[in-house]
Design goal:
The structure holds 2 protein chains of 2 kinds. Chain A is an alpha/beta fold. Chain A is built from 5 helices and 9 strands, in the order βββαββαααβαβββ. Chain A folds into 2 domains: about 1-65 and about 140-150 and about 170-200, Rossmann fold (3-Layer(aba) Sandwich); about 70-140, no CATH class. Helix content of chain A is about 30%, strand content about 30%. Chain B has helices at about 5-20, 20-40, 65-90, 95-100, 105-135, 140-165, 170-185, 190-195, 200-205, 210-220, 225-250; strands at about 45-50, 60-65. Chain B has one domain (about 5-250). By secondary structure, chain B is mostly helical. Helix content of chain B is about 75%, strand content about 5%. In chain B, α2 (about 20-40) runs antiparallel to α3 (about 65-90), α3 (about 65-90) runs parallel beside α6 and α6 packs antiparallel against α10. Classes of the chains: A alpha/beta, B mainly alpha. Chains A and B meet through α2 of A and α1 and α4 of B.
Chain lengths: ~200, ~250
């Protein structure tokens, strides 16, 4: 077991966003959370990664976590390489490891040619590729992805799913939030979140 | 705490800062504009005045122009550093939070911001100090520059505290402009201060000790040890406040 979510509840004022949500995740499996806008998907992820505190319940995590937020959170005045270096410092990665991992991820998602460009000068799709690459940089055991392919072209979208499947085979547990019901078949297990409750 | 993380963050913060051209232009241009206007408009007649932190028997006689130049140097130094500090702490706040989720300690980020700020305080103080000395002769230039660093430290830490507390940029700028204008830009002027009815209030404002320290060094041979000490104390108070607010906002809730 890599992640255990126990009876998580969260309310903003009178609005109960999550109601006693519980589930577990194991390695080498791809999980999906589907639900309409405002169903509590992003709130749940933010609680899992520790960005927000739940009102009730517990989260147990084993191993390193990689988190790709829905919004691209990057330093706009820094280049692609500088952003990767800054986040590698957060992960306590050495230079050699950073070099090999960033080269590999830039090749997978095809944005190596932009490595010296500042983020402010990049397209939304390229920014999103880097946003995703940062969450993968330190080879996490648990990967939490909040609609990670927003702005991807079709080719990158397919590369994303190929790479996700590869990570799953390597033992990673992956949780992908989506509101596309058509993607349900890609997952080993799907959690349906409706008005803050897992169905 | 990890030294490598602090150094990496410091390098990145300085790069981001130096890539914002408008900030660099403001830092270079504002003091020149302030001092040139004073040079062109201030009267040259000599007047006697007293400094609050010196004995009441000490009467200093200086030209109004020189007093105004020294005073505006102090004001512009504090104002610029506090705006810079606000910018440092507020900009890319969401991304900083992501760094914390990825493993950075909020204190490491704040220390990196503080180190970047100290470098900028030093640069601004030396630049303004040398600029003023091109207009007028300053009695003890190194100690005057140190006084400018102190106003930078106090107001910089105030900027950090305001930036940690307030999310909106406009509101943050408002709080800085309001205090800088009233405190360092008006009440600490020795010309106003000497005649003030309630100067006890003025003595508790943030610019009081650093202004005294800089003005003592510029006009007299007296020691400004106590104003310097209290300036550091005052700035440290703001810094602790900033640390607590920033940590509370940035920490992850596990």
């Amino acid at each position: 077991m890599i992640l255990k979510v126990e009876n998580i509840s969260k309310a903003f004022g009178k609005n109960k966003v999550l109601k006693n949500v519980s589930f577990e995740m194991n390695s080498s499996l791809l999980y999906g959370i589907v639900g309409e806008n405002g169903s509590g998907k992003s709130t749940l992820l933010k609680i899992i990664v520790g960005e927000w505190k739940p009102d009730h319940g517990n989260i147990l995590v084993e191993g390193r976590v990689g988190y790709c937020p829905q919004k691209t959170l990057l330093f706009s005045q820094l280049t692609v390489d500088e952003n990767l270096k800054y986040f590698a410092a957060a992960y306590e990665m050495g230079n050699a490891e950073l070099f090999s991992r960033s080269e590999s991820l830039m090749n997978v998602f095809n944005f190596k040619k932009y490595r010296k460009e500042r983020i402010a000068n990049l397209s939304g799709g390229t920014q999103q590729k880097l946003n995703l690459a940062i969450s993968l940089l330190h080879q996490p055991k648990l990967l939490i992805l909040d609609e990670p392919y927003n702005g991807f072209d079709w080719d990158t979208y397919l590369r994303f799913w190929d790479y996700t499947n590869q990570l799953r085979k390597e033992g990673c547990a992956i949780l992908v939030v989506t509101h596309f019901l058509a993607e349900k078949d890609r997952f080993d297990k799907v959690f349906n979140l409706e008005e803050g409750e897992l169905i | 705490m990890n030294a490598n993380r602090i150094i990496t963050a410091l390098i990145m913060i300085l790069r981001m800062l130096l890539r914002r051209r408008i900030i660099l232009i403001a830092l270079l241009v504002i003091p020149v504009v302030f001092l040139t206007i004073v040079e062109l408009t201030a009267p040259t007649r000599f007047i006697p005045f007293r400094l609050a932190s010196l004995d009441t028997s000490v009467l200093i006689r200086e030209s109004l122009k020189k007093i105004a130049l020294i005073f505006f140097a102090v004001t512009s130094s504090g104002f610029l550093v506090s705006l810079l500090a606000l910018n440092l702490i507020q900009i890319e706040n969401d991304v900083n939070r992501r760094l914390v989720i990825c493993g950075y300690n909020p204190f490491e980020l704040l220390i990196s911001n503080l180190l970047a700020l100290l470098l900028m305080i030093l640069t601004i103080a030396v630049y303004i100090g040398l600029l003023v000395s091109a207009f007028v002769s300053v009695m003890h230039l190194p100690m005057f520059i140190f006084g400018l660093m102190l106003i930078g430290f106090v107001y910089g830490c105030y900027g950090l505290a305001i930036g940690s507390l307030i999310k909106g940029k406009l509101e943050g700028v408002f709080f800085i402009v309001m205090l800088a204008n009233i405190d360092s830009g008006w009440l600490q002027n020795p010309m106003y201060y000497a005649e003030a009815h309630n100067n006890v209030v003025i003595r508790y404002l943030p610019a009081y000790f650093p202004s005294q320290s800089a003005i003592i060094a510029a006009f007299t041979d007296f020691s400004g040890t106590w104003p310097r000490f209290y300036s550091i104390l005052y700035g440290t108070g703001f810094l602790i406040l900033a640390l607590l607010i920033f940590y509370n906002k940035m920490r992850i809730k596990k």
